[in-house]
Amino acid sequence: MTEAALGAAFTEVFGRAPEGGWAAPGRVNLIGEHTDYNDGFVMPFALPHTTRAAVARRDDGRLRLHSAATGIGAGGVVELDVARLAPGATEGWARYPAAVLWTLREAGHPVGGADIHYTSTVPVGGGLSSSAALQVVTALALTELYGVEPTRQELALLCQRSENVYVGAPVGVMDQIASACCTEGHALHLDVRSMAQRQVPFDLAAEGLRLLVVDTRVKHAHADGAYGELRAGCEAAAAALGLPALRDVAYGDLDAALAALPDDRLRRLTRHIVTENRRVEEVIALLDAGRTADIGPVLTAGHVSLRDDFRISCAELDVVVDTALAEGALGARMTGGGFGGSAIVLLEESAEERIGSAIDRALPQSRRFTTVPGPGAHRLG
Ligand code: GLA
Fold first, then answer.
1. Taking the complete model, does pTM exceed 0.85, yes or no?
2. Which residue has the CA at smallest separation from atom 11 of ligand 1?
């Protein structure tokens, strides 16, 4: 949707012109899964798919939300009283923007009511961070309109807090950082402990490569509860080792750490996190050396670890990965939280049609697209 069309849709809903338009992308994670809440390393990049918001301030303390985005509540206007926003008090998709406004105000920022019209091209429920895109576009628009100037990192942390406290999901910060901080043509290496960021050039086309994103279009019901249990398990393992976080287990000390842990589940969780942090470092070293095709086996090893040690893959994700590899993909893995959602497949340009068609046959319900790293959140126009 063009900026003019976004503005026109706002006017149709709210009967006046918006003050501006903003966009925030979804993401895929190249490598570094479930490492964010273990103080470790992640490496997402922004999708060209965005959630867009046309926004105008209101001075009567009301927040009015409307969405034309399939899956995030196409329908009527949701109207909320800013003074009455409270964790747990909002239902459905509107709790994400409500959470952002509440969190900004809780943090002392002078942000008030607004009319907001959303549209989105981020597949909802595909594990591609449609909710982080919704949070970040809302936070960016409200802070800019109300003259608050957080850094992008602060903005992302506020959005994460809004999801943790208001929505009640114990997520890490990767998705919000990806949407707020990624840059076009790069994957973002983030050290979650220090919050140090590095934009790593990720130019697939220059090397005759492609990256497919395959949305399995399944999300298994236990996904939400399982995330909290995995996080708690990782924290229990770190505590059993007397460490602040599993990040503090050096790769060379993994065997000793495993021997010191009391049960198999904690050992499996620990092995995934420690080897996954190592895989992020391997991928960075390969990209820095201009050896993009060689990251394939590292991505695949990440999938095996998520499937066998972290145990968060599912039949549909495994079908996509196995089919892609059997047809000659360079590497493939699930991406995101797990139990459904999407997989990524690295392949040579010449193999794209063959491998893509094989995936279509193996999992007919899936939807796929080829992608490159897009820009992070920005104001339109
Ligand atoms: C979800 C969470 C992230 C991260 C990933 C797994 O996307 O929102 O914080 O933990 O799962 O890497």
1. yes
2. 337
List, for residues 141-179, the tens digit of each pLDDT value.
999 999 999 999 999 999 999 999 999 999 999 999 999
Report the 10 Å Cβ neighbour count for 297. 15
What tens digit of pLDDT does each residue of 152-161 get? 999 999 999 9
Rounded Cα distance between 41 and 300, Å, is 18
What is the DSSP secondary structure assignment for residue 144, as one 8-state letter? H
Q: pLDDT tens-digit profile of 265-285?
A: 999 999 999 999 999 999 999
Asked whether the beta carbons of 95 and 103 are under 8 A apart, the reply is: no
The residue among 283, 305, 299, 314 whose CA lies nearest residue 346 is 299
Cβ atoms of 174 and 36 closer than 8 Å:
yes
CA 63 to ligand 1 centroid distance, Å: 28
Phi, psi values for residue 78, rounded to 5°: -95, 125
Banded model confidence at residue 1, pLDDT cuts 50, 70, 90: low
Q: Exposed (0-12), middle (13-18) or buried (19+): which is 372, by Cβ within 10 Å?
A: middle
Q: Which atom of ligand 1 lies closest to the CA of 36?
A: 10
State the catalytic residues: 175
Question: Nearest C-alpha to atom 9 of ligand 1 is from which residue?
Answer: 172
Amino acid, res. 181: C
Complete domains list, the chain, with CATH: 3-199 (3.30.230.10), 203-371 (3.30.70.890)
pLDDT in tens, 67-94: 987 656 556 899 999 999 999 989 999 9
Residues with a CB atom less than 6 Å from ligand 1:
29, 33-34, 36-37, 171-172, 174-175, 336-337
Determine the distance separating the centroid of ligand 1 and the alpha carbon of 176, expressed in angstroms.
Answer: 10
Beta carbons within 8 Å of 72's beta carbon, 6+ residues apart: 51, 93, 118, 120, 124, 130, 134
Helix orientation angle between 174-181 and 152-161, rounded to the nearest 10 degrees? 150
Pairing, β 340-348 against β 209-219: antiparallel
Rounded distance from Cα 172 to ligand 1 centre (Å):
6
pLDDT score, position 282: 98
